[in-house]
Write a structure and sequence with these properties.
This protein is α/β, with parallel strands linked by helices. Helices cover 33% and strands 19% of the residues. A hairpin with an 8-residue loop joins strand 4 and strand 5. The longest helix has 14 residues. The model has no long low-confidence stretch (mean pLDDT 89).
Length: 176
C-alpha cells in the first residue's frame, strides 16, 4: 500500500503580460515533477490536444526544438505565443502517487501576481479535482469566469481525443 507524501509545488508558472487565459491543473504528477514541467507524462494528451486546437504541428513552428520529445523552452514559447498562462491550483498537499482523489490538506497557489501582470479573462481547469479546489479555495479572490475541462490524464480515457479537442477549443476563442 502506498503512503501519502507531502508535496510542495516547485515548477514556476508560465505567463507574461500578454497572457489572457490561465490553464490550471491540480498538481504536477510525479513524472511532470521529474521532468520539471507541466503535463510531462508522455501518455498525457494535453500537448497533443493543444496542437490540434491551434491546428499546428509544433515541430514545424519550432524546428530547432524537439517539441513532442520535450524541450521545456519550446513549450513555454508556445504558451506565451498563444497567450496562455499555465500553473496549478495546489502549492502543497498530501498525496498518494499521482491520484488526485488522494489529495489531502491542499494549500492553493497565490495567483495574484499573474492577475496583476496579465489581463486574464478566463480560467480553465483541467479536471474535476482542479475545478473543485479552485472553486473552493480560489475563485472568490479573483473576479474571473472559470470553466471545467476534462482531464487530459492517461487515467481519463472516457473521452475520446476528438471530443477532448472540441472541449479544449474554448481556450483558443478566449486567448486572443
Amino acid at each position: 500500500m502506498l503512503t501519502p507524501h507531502h508535496i510542495k509545488h516547485t515548477i514556476p508558472p508560465v505567463y507574461d503580460e500578454r497572457s489572457t487565459v490561465l490553464l490550471l491543473g491540480s498538481l504536477p504528477s510525479p513524472k511532470s515533477r521529474a521532468e520539471g514541467f507541466y503535463y510531462g507524462n508522455p501518455q498525457n494528451r494535453l500537448w497533443k490536444i493543444l496542437e490540434a486546437v491551434y491546428q499546428t504541428n509544433l515541430n514545424k513552428i519550432y524546428p530547432d526544438e524537439i517539441y513532442l520529445n520535450g524541450t521545456i523552452e519550446a513549450k513555454k514559447k508556445f504558451l506565451r505565443d498563444k497567450h496562455i498562462a499555465m500553473w496549478d491550483v495546489i502549492a502543497e498537499c498530501e498525496i498518494t502517487g499521482a491520484a488526485d482523489s488522494s489529495i489531502k490538506n491542499p494549500v492553493p497557489n497565490d495567483f495574484s501576481k499573474i492577475f496583476k501582470t496579465a489581463k486574464i479573462n478566463a480560467v480553465f481547469l483541467t479536471g474535476k479535482k482542479a475545478f473543485t479546489l479552485y472553486e473552493l479555495l480560489c475563485a472568490s479572490k479573483y473576479n474571473v469566469p472559470y470553466y471545467l475541462l476534462p482531464s487530459p490524464s492517461p487515467a481519463n480515457q472516457r473521452i475520446g481525443f476528438e471530443d477532448m479537442v472540441a472541449q479544449y477549443s474554448i481556450i483558443n476563442s478566449n486567448s486572443k
